[in-house]
Amino acid sequence: xxxxxxxxxxxxxxxxxxxxxxxxxxxxxxxxxxxxxxxxxxxxxxxxxxxxxxxxxxxxxxxxxxxxxxxxxxxxxxxxxxxxxxxxxxxxxxxxxxxxxxxxxxxxxxxxxxxxxxxxxxxxxxxxxxxxxxxxxxxxxxxxxxxxxxxxxxxxxxxxxxxxxxxxxxxxxxxxxxxxxxxxxxxxxxxxxxxxxxxxxxxxxxxxxxxxxxxxxxxxxxxxxxxxxxxxxxxxxxxxxxxxxxxxxxxxxxxxxxxxxxxxxxxxxxxxxxxxxxxxxxxxxxxxxxxxxxxxxxxxxxxxxxxxxxxxxxxxxxxxxxxxxxxxxxxxxxxxxxxxxxxxxxxxxxxxxxxxxxxxxxxxxxxxxxxxxxxxxxxxxxxxxxxxxxxxxxxxxxxxxxxxxxxxxxxxxxxxxxxxxxxxxxxxxxxxxxxxxxxxxxxx
Amino acid sequence: xxxxxxxxxxxxxxxxxxxxxxxxxxxxxxxxxxxxxxxxxxxxxxxxxxxxxxxxxxxxxxxxxxxxxxxxxxxxxxxxxxx
Lengths: 444, 83
Prior knowledge:
The structure holds two protein chains of two kinds.
Chain A: H1 8-11, H2 13-20, H3 24-50, H4 65-76, H5 78-89, H6 99-121, H7 127-133, H8 139-159, H9 163-172, H10 176-185, H11 192-225, H12 237-263, H13 272-303, H14 306-316, H15 321-339, H16 347-374, H17 389-412, H18 418-439
Helix pairs in contact in A: 3-17, 4-6, 4-12, 4-16, 5-6, 5-11, 5-12, 6-8, 6-17, 8-11, 9-10, 11-12, 12-13, 12-16, 13-15, 14-15, 14-16, 15-16
Chain B: H1 9-45, H2 50-80
């Protein structure tokens, strides 16, 4: 870089402000989130002491809020890696401010999702049984393996593209944190060879992470579909879960974009066009989700198997009807109404649609799990599931912990990739022009 | 392509931490691979359809090895090409 070229860190100083400056709002945000995290931790401490009896879980309803949270959070993890990877491979230039936000979501929620499994175990030491006595005949082990692979890949996919930005922080920050960034920067100096290694590694990871991400939620669906429980034993569950995961992931990403745009004054980076494009993706996923849901329930209804119909009617008009129809309204009706016209793709409307999708997708996981367990194939005298405040605490604590980890990340690393923005301005524009010219009729 | 930058005590300490990072990643991935192999052995001992364990490991182990390879590639690529 010559002395006449502006320093990228100076040009994009606003992206470093959250790291270099800490305002009162940050402490208030962390304080509020910690309250909910402590509520969740306190609830778990009671569960640890008194056992799962303090929850609403029982026989036959042995899966409730915790497994709902697990599936929900693992689903949201598809935001990051899948969207980021697919946009990178398709060379969509508008991805540049979004990819890191998405990748951070992935890494953070995977920890939260896995933690909910430990909470659901009641006795977390039983996790060791998976290490010593695991059996690969069980879809639960497939789950453990695929989530481990996804977590490893996602951490790498987040870290590798961060290296140049970590080097910027290494060069600007003094004191204890300088050492932290210096270690993680791996000696980045921006040489052409280093850039080549980085680009190649990112390209490999972008391709690798897609099948891993798809396999994760497919395997999560197998935990249900490989059983013979009514309305679980369905071949459509694999793609249905993947579509739902991408759907909820896009919604989570949109909400985080809107919040960060407001809090960190990123209006010049997160433009209305980003919300417009992701809003269109959200609409497409809403329609796809509805298609899969319709196919799933129509198949069950047409088969008219007695045990399945008990579950079916429990959802459609029985004790779970309120949750089921709320799910449909949140996942389909509201997003389609709000997003079907491009003119209505304002940031506020897209965020409203995303918020309803988050609620709807959590309800979808709940609706898949609990009604089936309340109406099992074997006759039971009565089955009911009423979550206690312990489970509500864990739910609130899980969300709060995810947001807290996300906020803390933004205090240590730039949430928008500085070097990728620079690359977009210097190289991307020319590449896009060249690409468009190559699409045009030639030799006329 | 030499690591001429590791000369002072400060640089050696930083390199030590970086090697620890690499070693942690190798241990983590290695541990997962060892665990998968342990499950294959266990299913073979118990005659518990070991073919399923072998089939899954044929996919899972190469994935982890590729991830390990990518991290090594980036790690040494960054450190060895600083100039």
